[in-house]
Design a protein that fits this description.
293 residues; mainly alpha; 74% helix; globular
Length: 293
């Protein structure tokens, strides 16, 4: 463990992850805004997936500790998982409700638990199991309640993004000895550059305000939270990290409703309540854990 990581404690790690979830949830405000919704739906997911990733990469360049930068094959799973997650999640967000897209992406939690146990050899904590069961119940309720409506294709994209997101979370834990800003910049840069030729062939024109909002999404809603998440995952188990960021799907539909009046369906309310209840029980009954090796 590096000196930087050892200077962090579990409490600060949790603060980093909660802050990351809060910043990620701002997608409910920006992507659902009339300004972004004015981008044609056929182009919207590509524009956002590409340009917000590139803005994130450029915006975080000054924070990279270049003396610690290493190019290693260990970065490949992180880069690939992130690129796939980026495209699928934005596609889901433009085709279904904010709440459903965010909640269904967090089917990743179950995959994180499974592969954290199998690959990273992390012991599964009883409190985390309780929270996982509640989260799984909430996510399943949303999925099966909305599977026959007009948002079905968006829900499938969200489920796919959840599998890729699990790969991202596991990679952040696996790469905990790398510079967090460097890993974040590389993930975003590759994700954006892969899509850039396709976006340029569309000849999509954005207004100055749309460019500003996409830049905000890239730097503050996407880039910065991943740096915070990487630092949090470095000192917490990947299981607990995956549970803490479940705060994002609770907040996303709330912001979309408060700012733009987007309807929050009953399944999303009930499912979100189960997720939040599971987290509350986990930290009320099992409030702390020792720092993992």
């Amino acid at each position: 463990m590096t000196n930087h990581q050892s200077s962090l404690n579990p409490t600060r790690g949790r603060v980093f992850l909660i802050a990351a979830a809060l910043l990620w949830s701002l997608s409910g405000i920006v992507i659902k805004s009339p300004v972004i919704q004015a981008i044609p739906v056929g182009d919207r997911s590509l524009v956002l997936a590409c340009y917000r990733a590139l803005f994130a990469a450029v915006g975080l360049l000054p924070f990279v500790a270049w003396r610690r930068v290493r190019v290693t094959p260990r970065l490949v799973p992180s880069v690939v998982s992130f690129a796939v997650m980026n495209v699928l999640f934005v596609s889901a967000f433009t085709r279904t409700t904010a709440g459903a897209a965010s909640c269904l992406q967090y089917t990743s939690t179950a995959w994180v638990f499974l592969f954290g146990w199998l690959v990273l050899k992390e012991k599964i904590h009883r409190g985390n199991i309780v929270a996982l069961v509640c989260a799984g119940g909430g996510i399943a309720w949303i999925l099966f309640s909305e599977q026959n409506d007009q948002h079905a294709d968006g829900n499938l994209f969200a489920l796919g993004s959840g599998i890729a997101y699990a790969g991202v979370m596991l990679s952040l834990r696996w790469l905990r000895n790398e510079d967090a800003a460097w890993v974040t910049v590389l993930n975003h840069a590759v994700s954006g550059l892969v899509l850039l030729p396709l976006v340029l062939t569309r000849h999509i024109e954005l207004t100055a305000l749309q460019w500003s909002l996409v830049a905000f999404l890239g730097v503050f809603q996407m880039g910065l939270p991943y740096v915070l998440a990487a630092r949090g995952v470095a000192v917490l188990s990947v299981q607990e990290s995956a549970l803490l960021v479940l705060l994002e799907p609770i907040l996303v539909p709330l912001w979309a409703w408060l700012c733009w009046g987007e309807h929050i369906g009953g399944p999303t309310l009930f499912g979100g309540g189960l997720i939040l209840g599971g987290l509350a029980v986990r930290y009320a009954v099992w409030p702390d854990r020792p720092l993992p090796p």
